[in-house]
Amino acid sequence: MIKMFSRYARALALTAGFVGMLGLAACGKQEEKAAEAPAAPQAAAPARVYLVGVESAYAPFSSENEQKTVVGFDIDVMKVLAKKIGIEVKFVPTPFESIFNSLAQGDLDLLISAITITDERKKSVSFSDPYFVATQAIAVPANDTKVTKMDDLKTLAVGTQSGTSGDELVQQVLGKNSAKIKRFESTPLALKELESGGVDAVVADEPVVKNYIANNPNSKLRTVNDPTFPKEDYGIAVRRDDPELLAKVNKALAEMKADGSFAAISAQYFGK
Fold it and tell me: Where in the cell is it found (predicted)?
């Protein structure tokens, strides 16, 4: 009886050991398969989108079409620049009055909106190399023959877009706090006011005034060019703490001027 029990115990032990060995072998194969399995690919981090501040009522540089898409000379220039730099951009319509603050606060990464490079603005932003040269123009009713130069506006009600170089020019002639200066959110609004007789003249960027008159033949407005108006360089603005981005913008801008892509865009909007 004791011998039979001993044999039975030895048999159980051998069986348990064999089962344990099978279990270890199975675990080893599972671990081996797990080690051989390729790691799941890591999801690529989404590319950064650079936010570009533009004014949406400043044709032909930037304006919204019927589909509410921002289009224009500045938009086309920035699209080519972005490709050359290798970045993705999104255009953000922003009132000109607040466009510099939006950049400084980090809400925007770049500005392109027919922005004149001035010493005062250089204190808060960094500008690219100039990409466009413009001047101011005076808009008056077509039947007005008295206004031939800027000094003729001294006694008149003059409209201008707030915060622009046209605004600064009017202040120099009429006085900084003159009640005769009527400021508007956009140049088209100022020109509409001129059409209705609310102001006697408007001072604004010449390309914008001429574009408005050309596309509104019933406005009955004309332009006056004062030879004393200074030439103005437009630049692309970035934050002062982003010299790397500025260098990339200048490099891409130089490439555009060298390969003819900038000239092609200019011809499309302003002729050869």
Answer: Cell envelope
